[in-house]
């Protein structure tokens, strides 16, 4: 077990949440999502993002529209559906609960130095 593996798993666990938060602000192009995630130090590649967007779309959380581009082929812009907005609301509540739990655990004082008895 390495710290890097655990860090990757933690990031994967919140990736959907981050993507939904980005899309919740308005229509967004996948490339712009990648840029924002990278800027936020959430290392994501196209091979991860596009299947996830497809899965979220198939689950009814996202919709998209094609828009003409002045610099190439039409682009697919994503938006949240009503179901996606409610889903994100529930994720936000869960995030607050998890954040509070972690804060409580991390703020608990250290033990007074006594050793834990060996396992019998």
Automatic annotation (TrEMBL):
<dbReference type="InterPro" id="IPR036390">
    <property type="entry name" value="WH_DNA-bd_sf"/>
</dbReference>
<dbReference type="InterPro" id="IPR052509">
    <property type="entry name" value="Metal_resp_DNA-bind_regulator"/>
</dbReference>
<dbReference type="Pfam" id="PF03551">
    <property type="entry name" value="PadR"/>
</dbReference>
<dbReference type="InterPro" id="IPR036388">
    <property type="entry name" value="WH-like_DNA-bd_sf"/>
</dbReference>
<dbReference type="InterPro" id="IPR005149">
    <property type="entry name" value="Tscrpt_reg_PadR_N"/>
</dbReference>
<feature type="domain" description="Transcription regulator PadR N-terminal">
    <location>
        <begin position="19"/>
        <end position="89"/>
    </location>
</feature>
<protein>
    <submittedName>
        <fullName>PadR family transcriptional regulator</fullName>
    </submittedName>
</protein>
């Amino acid at each position: 077990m390495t710290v890097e593996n655990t860090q990757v798993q933690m990031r994967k666990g919140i990736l959907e949440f981050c993507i939904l938060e980005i899309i919740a602000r308005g229509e967004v192009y996948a490339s712009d999502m990648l840029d924002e995630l990278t800027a936020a130090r959430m290392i994501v590649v196209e091979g991860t993002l596009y299947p996830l967007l497809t899965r979220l779309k198939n689950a009814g959380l996202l919709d998209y529209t094609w828009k003409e581009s002045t610099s190439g082929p039409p682009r697919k812009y994503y938006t949240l559906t009503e179901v996606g907005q409610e889903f994100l609301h529930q994720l936000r509540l869960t995030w607050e609960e998890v954040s509070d739990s972690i804060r409580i655990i991390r703020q608990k004082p250290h033990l007074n130095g006594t050793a834990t008895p060996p396992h019998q």
